[in-house]
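Notes, p. 3: input format for complexes.
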Amino acid sequence: MLETAEKMIEAAGQRLERVVYTEGEIRARVGAMGEQIARHYEDAGDLLVLGLLKGSFVFLADLVREIPLPLHVDFLVASSYGSEKVSSGDVQLLYQSASTLKGRNVLVVEDIIDSGTTVARLMPLLREREPKSLEICALLHKRIVPLEWEPRWVGFDAPRDFLIGYGLDYSEHFRHLPFIASLRD
Ligand code: PRP
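Output follows (185 residues plus PRP):
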């Protein structure tokens, strides 16, 4: 897969720097996170897992299968990067989930928290909908600045490199890679 991925990346005019998290490392970490989350919500009642599209679709699919509790899944769609490597800072909420949040335990699933702009924009909107509890689970966190909305569960403290794969894209490419890699500048 690595060789094929390198070719795809070069065809898109980019260069692979290195594989940052392998498929096996991600699987192990997601399994451990699922266990912790299941323990946390065990006696909490109604759980709604809210994925932030598009980036979280792979992580969410793997994560919910590691949470052996009754739960529901829904999505929000937000976008800030456009086709660039740097966030525009202008977070567009393209789709708000129609699920009722009021009185439910809501777990927001993010693939990556980079500048924190997306969660800063979205969390107050979700809070307004009066969930019983509201937490964030992020596979990757760059910890560039302290956040008002810190994720309760983090998979990896990510390097500052531009990352692709396992849901993360460069200009919509590479979301389907099973590992996470960095691109050269
Ligand atoms: C990416 C990623 C996060 C957000 C993180 O989404 O999926 O949602 O950026 O960056 P931030 O912390 O600097 O706000 P993007 O806007 O690229 O949309 P996508 O999920 O469709 O890739």
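Residues 23-41 form the longest helix (19 residues).
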